[in-house]
Amino acid sequence: NAGVTQTPKFQVLKTGQSMTLQCAQDMNHEYMSWYRQDPGMGLRLIHYSVGAGITDQGEVPNGYNVSRSTTEDFPLRLLSAAPSQTSVYFCASSYLGDSYEQYFGPGTRLTVT
Amino acid sequence: RKEVEQDPGPFNVPEGATVAFNCTYSNSASQSFFWYRQDCRKEPKLLMSVYSSGNEDGRFTAQLNRASQYISLLIRDSKLSDSATYLCVVILTSNNNDMRFGAGTRLTVKP
Q1: Average pLDDT of the segment spanning A105-112
Q2: From A27, A52, B37, B54, which residue has the greatest number of CB atoms within 10 Å?
Q3: Burial level of A54, CB count in 10 A (0-12/13-18/19+)?
Q4: Interface contact flag, A58 B43, Cβ < 8 Å
Q5: Which chain A residues contact residue B103 at CB under 8 A?
Q6: CA B26 to chain centre
Q7: How much of chain B exceeds pLDDT 90, in percent?
């Protein structure tokens, strides 16, 4: 049981480049989400999904797209990277409902120059 | 005003000390409360849920004060391994997507 996995661990992009951050979970969780973590700020929700084929925006969705074609996978796409997107990105999953533990992946450290 | 506020610290305490962190939240209708722990350059992990009646897990005690809109975490007999950042998490409604994270309180336990 690998839990939540993310790739890559580190990435450097130039302004304007696009890329996809991968996230997968093997716990059959309905709920998956992407957060970004910046110094001095709490984790902020980018996009989330409550099941395959269903996605919605979180607090800070601009500049990012997601899709959920399977229960297991939830990739995050940066359409045209900007320096303001330099951050640590965490994918998380859980069962639906507010009382369930969120399981986080190990994170992707992204730098946009 | 931030929805969830924490003292960023750092708190530097000796081994064996008792340390307490507070976290305030702005939305009085918030429904669920948690403490997560995040080690340096690692992902957050659930430490404990916070119940209205208060709850204890070994050396850790969590309390909720709805009237004053704060939650607290007390760590007794601190260990070196308790060094981490502690994140306060508030869920505004019954939806997972309404989780709000504090920026975290950093704790360093010294020998």
Answers
A1: 97
A2: B37
A3: exposed
A4: no
A5: 40-42
A6: 16
A7: 77
Residue contact A100–B97, C-beta within 8 A: no
Binary contact (B93, A98; C-beta < 8 A):
yes
The pLDDT tens digits for B5-53 are 998 889 999 999 999 999 999 998 888 899 999 999 999 999 999 988 8
Tell me the count of A-B CB pairs closer than 8 A: 57
Q: What is the pLDDT of residues A9-27, one digit of tens each?
A: 999 999 999 999 999 999 9
CA distances from B85 to A37, A45, A46, B107 (A): 13, 19, 22, 6
Please indicate if any CB of chain B lies within 8 Å of the CB of A74.
Answer: no
In angstroms, rounded to a whole number, what is the distance separating the alpha carbons of residues B16 and A32?
39
How many C-alpha atoms does A61 have within 13 Å on its Cβ side? 13
pLDDT attached to residue A88: 98
B41 CB neighbours in chain A (<8 A) are: 107
Q: A44 vs B8: CB contact, 8 Å cut-off? A: no
Is the model more confident about A57 or about A41? A57
Q: In chain A, which residues have their Cβ closer than 8 Å to the Cβ of B97?
A: 33, 45, 48, 56, 58
**Residues contacting residue B41 through CB under 8 Å, at least 6 positions apart:** A107
Quote the CA–CA distance of B58 and B54 in Å, as a whole number.
Answer: 13
